[in-house]
Every structure is written in structure tokens, then in C-alpha cells.
Design brief:
CATH architecture of the largest domain: 3-Layer(aba) Sandwich
Largest sheet: 6 strands, parallel
Number of strands: 12
Radius of gyration: 20 Å
Shape: elongated
CATH superfamily of the largest domain: NAD(P)-binding Rossmann-like Domain
Strand order of the largest sheet: 3-2-1-4-5-12
Order of helices and strands: EHEEHEHEEHEEEHEHEEH
Strand content: 15-25%
Structural class: alpha/beta
CATH topology of the largest domain: Rossmann fold
């Protein structure tokens, strides 16, 4: 009698958590689980996860649902960036269409600690309006798609950090662009803030260890931090760690 075909897991990744989950799932479940990671393809030279890798979009929720059915994907884990709201909404809809079990791996957001000078806002538009009046040199780490609202401040100077060189010119009158990929060390982040004379940080509550050092450095220098809150995740099951996600997989495999 032939052995049953392995269950197939699709991870919507491109994050450190997605890579960690792919490696851990591949190691723990071995031949009983085929691990496939889907990367959007927006980052040049991405760090590839363990297992099979697919790069590129699906064509919206309908396209993703068709892929889930055609590839016989039994498990879907959304491990995308906390601000990737479009793909998360599409994954929610596609899983419902295809009848695929779905989990969202939610990276815990950063939380303020004593000494932080956070200014909490809901959107990047609010962040641009919330820059303190005394600030003149701003460190922006909000992603290339969120830079436009800050063009309303032609009098301010911006240090913009992105992973890759953008395809289009940055819409800021006075700025310096640096391209780098985390993780970053606290000492390096503090040196960056001091060397460029930064007096305000604007960022998103992304969470994770790779880019948290800038917050520690800002705290040490007593700098204000304009923090853009996360949008709420789509409804459905969620996990806050790779280990919780592995437990969810194990339970689904047991049911199968």
C-alpha cells in the first residue's frame, strides 16, 4: 500500500519569522510536510528560506485561491510583514474560497518602556503631522511606500533607510538615503543618530529584534519617537511565535 502524500504548507513570508518557521517546520516534520514559502519579490536578493520557494504575486485573492486548490495546499500560514495588509486580506479571502486551514503568525509589536518618548499615531499621515516643532533632522524608517506624506515638510532634513535602492526618486526635498538590512546593533544605531545629528525618529511598530536597536539608541539619546500603530490583522486563528505556529501545524497534521 502506497504511503499517503505529504501535507503541503504554504508560508506567505519574506520576514525573519517566515524564514524561521520554514526552517523549523522542515526540520520537525520532515517528509510528512512539504514546506513552500512565497515571497512577493519586492526585495532584491532576498534571503531564501528552507524548503521550496515561490517568488512573485498570485493575482489577488482569486489567484491565490486557485493556487491553493491547484497545488493541493492544505495549510496556509500568513507570516508577512505586520503592515502588509493587502496580502493578508487576500490570504483571508483565498483560504475561505479554497477551504484551506489558515493561521496568521503575528509578530508581537514593540512596547514602550520607561525613558521612551513615544508619540503614538494611527497613520503615516498623522506621523508627518506629529513631528515635534523643534525637530529639524528626522530619521525615517517607514518603508518606501510611506514617504510621500513627509514631503509636506520641505524645511526638514530626512535620513531615509530602506533595504533596497528605490525604483523612483524619493519625494523629499532634503534627504540622505542609506540602504541596509538588519539586524542592527545598538552601538551602530546610536552612532548613526549622533553622526547625522538626528533629533527625531519616525518609525512603525513593526516589532521583532532585527530593527529594535534604533529604539534603544533613541531612548539613550532622549529623542522623541513618532510611532505608527499597526493596522488590525484580519480575523481568524493567530500565533505569536514560531513555536505556537508549529503546534498549530502539528494539530492539523494529527487531524489529517
Amino acid at each position: 500500500m502506497a504511503a499517503p502524500a505529504p501535507e503541503r504548507l504554504l508560508i506567505l513570508g519574506g520576514t525573519a519569522e517566515g524564514r524561521a518557521l520554514a526552517a523549523a517546520a522542515d526540520a520537525r516534520f520532515g517528509p510528512s510536510l512539504t514546506v513552500i514559502s512565497a515571497l512577493a519579490g519586492r526585495t532584491r536578493a532576498p534571503i531564501l528560506p528552507a524548503g521550496e520557494v515561490r517568488i512573485g504575486g498570485f493575482g489577488g485573492a482569486d489567484g491565490l485561491a486557485a493556487y491553493l486548490r491547484e497545488q493541493r495546499i492544505g495549510l496556509l500560514i500568513d507570516a508577512t510583514h505586520p503592515y502588509a495588509t493587502r496580502i493578508s486580506a487576500q490570504a483571508h479571502e483565498a483560504a475561505a474560497q479554497a477551504g484551506t486551514a489558515r493561521l496568521v503568525l503575528v509578530r508581537p509589536p514593540w512596547q514602550p518602556v520607561p525613558g521612551d518618548r513615544w508619540i503614538d499615531v494611527a497613520t503615516v499621515e498623522e506621523a508627518a503631522a506629529a513631528i515635534p516643532a523643534e525637530a529639524e533632522r528626522i530619521f525615517l524608517t517607514v518603508g518606501v511606500r510611506s514617504l510621500a506624506p513627509f514631503a509636506a515638510h520641505p524645511d526638514l532634513w530626512f535620513l531615509v533607510r530602506l533595504v533596497d535602492e528605490p525604483a523612483e526618486p524619493i519625494p523629499l526635498a532634503r534627504h540622505r538615503l542609506i540602504c541596509a538590512r538588519g539586524p542592527f546593533a545598538v552601538a551602530d544605531e546610536r552612532a548613526l543618530l549622533e553622526n547625522y545629528g538626528i533629533d527625531c525618529l519616525v518609525t512603525r511598530a513593526s516589532g521583532g529584534e532585527a530593527t529594535a536597536a534604533k529604539l534603544t539608541a533613541a531612548r539613550a539619546l532622549e529623542l522623541p519617537v513618532v510611532m505608527v500603530r499597526r493596522p488590525p490583522p484580519p480575523p481568524g486563528s493567530s500565533a505569536s511565535s514560531v513555536e505556537e505556529a508549529l503546534t498549530w501545524i502539528e494539530e492539523r497534521l494529527g487531524e489529517a
